[in-house]
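TA notes, week 10

Several of you asked for a full example with nothing omitted. So below is the full record: C-alpha cells for the whole chain, then the designed sequence directly under it. When grading your own attempts, check the secondary structure regions first.
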C-alpha cells in the first residue's frame, strides 16, 4: 500500500520556478544594474551611502542641517547619508560594491537552494549531493554574516579617507548573531544529511 505525501511534483515545479525567478531578479537588480551604473551606462543616482556619523557631529532629530566639504555632503540625524556631488568611477565602484557583493552571496544561496529543490521532484532529497550543498550553503551564510557589516565600513572608510569628512564618519562595524546562528544550523543540517545518506548506503549494502 503506497503512502501519500502532501508534497507533489507540481509543488516542486512551483518551488523551482520561484527560486529561479528570484535568482534572475537578484542577478538583474542586485548585480547587473548596479554594475551598469558604476560604468555610467545606466541613468539614476549612484552618489550616496548611509553612514553613522561621529557622536559629536550627529545632527539633532527634527533639525534639518548638513555638513559639506571636499565634494561631499553629510545630511541626516542619527543615521545620516553621505552624498557625493560628482563621484568618479572609483567612488561609484566603492558605493556599489557592498550591495553587489551581498547580491552575489544571495544569488549563490538561491542557486544552491534551487539545486536542492530539484531533488524533491525526484522523490528523494536525502542524497549525498544535498549534504554537500547544505554545507556550502551554511558556509556561504557564515561568510556573508561577517562580510555584510564589514564591507560597507571598509568602503566608506576608503571613500572619506584623506578628506575632512573622515573626522565626521568614523570606522564602525556592528555584528549581529542571527545569521551566524542560521549558518551553524544549516551546517548542522548538512551534517545530518551526510550521516543519514552514509548510514542508508551502508544499510543498503547489507541487504
Amino acid at each position: 500500500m503506497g503512502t501519500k505525501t502532501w508534497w507533489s511534483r507540481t509543488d516542486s515545479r512551483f518551488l523551482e520556478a520561484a527560486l529561479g525567478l528570484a535568482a534572475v531578479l537578484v542577478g538583474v537588480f542586485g548585480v547587473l544594474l548596479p554594475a551598469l551604473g558604476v560604468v555610467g551606462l545606466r541613468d539614476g543616482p549612484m552618489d550616496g551611502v548611509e553612514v553613522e556619523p561621529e557622536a559629536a557631529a550627529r545632527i539633532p532629530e527634527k533639525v534639518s542641517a548638513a555638513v559639506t566639504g571636499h565634494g561631499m555632503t553629510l545630511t541626516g540625524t542619527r543615521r545620516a547619508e553621505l552624498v557625493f556631488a560628482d563621484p568618479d568611477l572609483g567612488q561609484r565602484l566603492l558605493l556599489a560594491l557592498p550591495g553587489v557583493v551581498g547580491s552575489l552571496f544571495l544569488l549563490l544561496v538561491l542557486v544552491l537552494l534551487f539545486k536542492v529543490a530539484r531533488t524533491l521532484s525526484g522523490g528523494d532529497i536525502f542524497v549525498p549531493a544535498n549534504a554537500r550543498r547544505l554545507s556550502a550553503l551554511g558556509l556561504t551564510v557564515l561568510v556573508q554574516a561577517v562580510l555584510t557589516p564589514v564591507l560597507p565600513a571598509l568602503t566608506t572608510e576608503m571613500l572619506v579617507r584623506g578628506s575632512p569628512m573622515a573626522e565626521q564618519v568614523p570606522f564602525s562595524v556592528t555584528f549581529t548573531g542571527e545569521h551566524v546562528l542560521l549558518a551553524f544550523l544549516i551546517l548542522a543540517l548538512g551534517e545530518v544529511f551526510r550521516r543519514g545518506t552514509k548510514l542508508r548506503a551502508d544499510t543498503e549494502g547489507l541487504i
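Strands lie at 48-51, 66-69, 72-76, 80-84. Use that as a sanity check on your answer.
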